[in-house]
TrEMBL record:
<keyword id="KW-0503">Monooxygenase</keyword>
<dbReference type="InterPro" id="IPR002401">
    <property type="entry name" value="Cyt_P450_E_grp-I"/>
</dbReference>
<dbReference type="InterPro" id="IPR036396">
    <property type="entry name" value="Cyt_P450_sf"/>
</dbReference>
<keyword id="KW-0349">Heme</keyword>
<dbReference type="InterPro" id="IPR001128">
    <property type="entry name" value="Cyt_P450"/>
</dbReference>
<dbReference type="InterPro" id="IPR017972">
    <property type="entry name" value="Cyt_P450_CS"/>
</dbReference>
<comment type="similarity">
    <text>Belongs to the cytochrome P450 family.</text>
</comment>
<keyword id="KW-0560">Oxidoreductase</keyword>
<dbReference type="GO" id="GO:0005506">
    <property type="term" value="F:iron ion binding"/>
</dbReference>
<keyword id="KW-0732">Signal</keyword>
<keyword id="KW-0408">Iron</keyword>
<dbReference type="GO" id="GO:0004497">
    <property type="term" value="F:monooxygenase activity"/>
</dbReference>
<protein>
    <submittedName>
        <fullName>Cytochrome P450 family protein</fullName>
    </submittedName>
</protein>
<keyword id="KW-0479">Metal-binding</keyword>
<feature type="binding site" description="axial binding residue">
    <location>
        <position position="442"/>
    </location>
    <ligand>
        <name>heme</name>
    </ligand>
</feature>
<dbReference type="InterPro" id="IPR047146">
    <property type="entry name" value="Cyt_P450_E_CYP52_fungi"/>
</dbReference>
<dbReference type="GO" id="GO:0020037">
    <property type="term" value="F:heme binding"/>
</dbReference>
Amino acid sequence: VHYAVTSALHARRARQWGCRAPPFKGHNWFLGVDNVLAMDKADKACQLPQFLYDEHVEMGCSTFAEGFIGDVFITYEPKNIQAILATQFQDFEIGQRRRGALLPLLGDGIFTTDGQMWEHSRSLLRPQFARDQIADLTLEQRHVEDMFKCFNMVDGWTSLDLAPVFFRFTMDSATEFLFGQSTHTQAAYAASSRGEKNVGEFQWADIGTRFDRGTYAIGVRARMADVYWLYYPKSFREDIREIHRFADACIADGMNRAKTSAPEKTAERYVFLDELLKATNDPVEIRSQLLNILLAGRDTTAGLLGWTFWNLTRHPDVYQKLRTAIVEEFGTYDSSKAITFTQLKACSYLQYVMMETLRLFPSVPANARLATRNTTLPYGGGPDGSSPVYVKKGQEVTYSVYVMHRRREIWGSNADEFVPERWIGRKLGWEYLPFNGGPRVCLGQQFALTEAGYVITKILQRFDKIEKTDPSDVQWHNYNTTSAPKRVLVRMHQAS
Ligand code: HEM
C-alpha cells in the first residue's frame, strides 16, 4: 500500500512539474542484473568508457533511464550536467556510497564529504590553490631528472612503457609537495634495475605500490554500490595501515618543523602540510585532507600524461609540431631558459594538445550524483527529449563526460579523432568538462596543467623522435577511480 501511495504521489508531482519519462534501457533479468554484469564485463576487459559510448549509440539519445538494481538515469547532456553540478547544486550530492567506499583509506576530506563538512574542507584548501607557487617547477625538475635516470639508453634510443613511469613520477612529486617528503619510488626503481638493494632514503618507496593497490580496492568498493563494505580484504587493510603510517610520520615531522623552525626557514620551500598546520593542528584531519588530494591529483595527472603520449605516438606529425613549438619557446633540453607557469600557459599548441587529450580521454570518464530531494533534470523527457525528467530523492544520476566529449552533434564528424587544432579560438562551455564544473570544480586544474605541461615539455626537449612499439591501437583503460592507459609502449630517440 505504502509503495502504491508513494508511486502515485511521485507521478502526480511529475505531472505538475511538466515532467515526461525519458527512454528506458530495458533488461532481461530481475532488476537489471544483466546490465550490471555487462558493465562489469566491459570493466574487466578495460573497455568501460567505450561500453558507455556504445550504450549511447544504441539508445540514440543523450538521457535515458536504465534498470541497474533500481532505476538510475544516465546523461551526456550539457544542460543536465550543468543542472546537477551548478544550477541545482543543492538538489544533488556525492552521497554515502562514495564516502563509504573511500573512507577507510582516505578519511573525511574534500573528496568524500557533502554539505557542511565539504564546505569546511573547500574553504580550508582553496586558499592554498590560489597561490602562485602551487606548482613548484624546481621540485618538478628534480623528479623529472629522476624519471630520466630510469630510462635505459642504447645507441641514443630508449624502449619502455611510459604508463608506469608517469605513476611513479606523480607519486614522488605529489608526496613531496603535499607531505614534504617524497616516496622516491623512481630512485628506488632505478636502483633495483641496477640490481642494488634499497637502502635508508627509499624507506617509503613501497607507498606507491600500496597506494595503487589501495585505489584499486576503493574502485572495486565504489562499483559495489550499497554493499561496498563487503569488500575489505586483509591486503587492503595492511596497505591502509602503511599509507597512514607514512602520512603520520610526515605530519609529526611537519609539527616539529612548525615548533622549531624560524619563520623564514619554513618559507624556503612550499609544503602543503606546513600550510595546513597553520590552519588546524588536528593530525587526523590533516592526514585525511592530504590523502584526499593525493587521490584527486596523482592518478588523474598520471592519466593525462599517459594518454597524451598514447596519442602523440599515434600522431607523429603532432609530436613534431609540438616539439617545434616547445623548442621555439623554451629552447632544447640543455637550454638555460627558465620554464615558468606563465610561459607554459602561453604555449598555445601545448595547451591544445592537453585539452584535446582530456577531451578524448578525460581522467574521470564517468561520475555520479544522488538526488537529495525530489527534483528534475531539465532535459531528456518525452518522445523528443525536450521535457524535464522527474528524479526521486535518493535516485542516482550518472553522467559521462567521456561520452559527451565524443558526441558528434557537439564535436562534429571527426569527434573521435585526435585534432589539437580544433581548439584554436574555441570557447569552453558545459560540453567540455574534464575538471568538472560548478562549486565542486577541480581545485587543482592549474596545478595539473602546469605539472603535466612541464613534464611534456622536458620529454619533448630531450627526445626528438617517438615511435609506438605497441602493435595494437585499442584503448585499454586502466580504470580504478580514474582512467589511465594500461600501457604506452614506445621507443624514443634522444636529441643530440
Ligand atoms: C589532469 C588532472 C586532473 C583532472 C582531469 C581532474 C579532474 C577532477 C574532477 C573531474 C573532479 C570532480 C570530482 C567529483 O566531484 O566527483 C576533481 C575534483 C578535485 N580535484 Fe582534480 N583533477 C586533476 C588534477 C588535480 C590535482 C593535481 C589536484 C591537486 C593537487 C586536484 C584536486 C582536486 C580536488 C581537491 C577536488 C575536489 C573538489 C571538491 O569536491 O570540492 N585535481 N578533479
